[in-house]
Write a structure and sequence with these properties.
The chain is α/β, with parallel strands linked by helices. It contains 5 helices and 5 strands. It has helices spanning about 15-25, 55-60, 75-80, 100-115, 125-149, and strands at about 5, 25-30, 45, 65-70, 85. Helix 1 (about 15-25) packs parallel to helix 5 (about 125-149) and helix 3 runs antiparallel to helix 4 (about 100-115).
């Protein structure tokens, strides 16, 4: 098991690394060339700054045992299709039951914006978001490690 992170705009990198170090779980952070990252623990993979470069690189290294942290619904759908676990930075797990609705909402919002309309952006991040994410990741890692034994 590894944790793969779509790290370009991920606000919970420190939480991920701290929990991974505590459990001895490898972390791979994927970023494009417009970002720099060094946390002293993670393997950092830097890819070209083309659309979806991080997504394709992540999918090429993904195994069913991995946990992926991403806010990208499209990437989450591909991760689910490969049988791995996808988790959002706000503390919820992507599932076959919720991904279609998330993708449809994203499509509708993009269509509105292309037509000149405006859509509401994400809410400002709060400590509760970090707490919810951390609690979920602790639970997932502990369950995965217990099942591995």
């Amino acid at each position: 098991m590894r944790i793969l992170v779509d790290a370009d705009a991920c606000p919970v990198k420190e939480i991920i690394v701290r929990l991974a170090i505590q459990r001895g779980i490898p972390v791979i952070m994927l970023i494009d060339t417009s970002h720099r990252l060094h946390d002293g623990y993670s393997v950092v993979v830097t890819v070209d700054k083309h659309a979806d470069s991080v997504d394709f690189a992540l999918m090429n290294m993904l195994t069913r045992e991995d946990i992926v942290i991403t806010q990208d619904f499209g990437l989450a759908a591909m991760v689910l299709g490969k049988g791995a676990l996808a988790v959002n930075q706000n503390g919820f797990v992507y599932t076959d039951d919720n991904i279609e609705k998330l993708l449809m909402n994203r499509h509708i919002s993009a269509k509105i914006r292309r037509g000149g309309g405006r859509t509401k952006g994400p809410a400002k991040r709060k400590q509760e978001d970090n707490d919810r994410f951390e609690a979920l990741l602790v639970k997932l890692l502990d369950v995965r490690q217990a099942n591995k034994s």
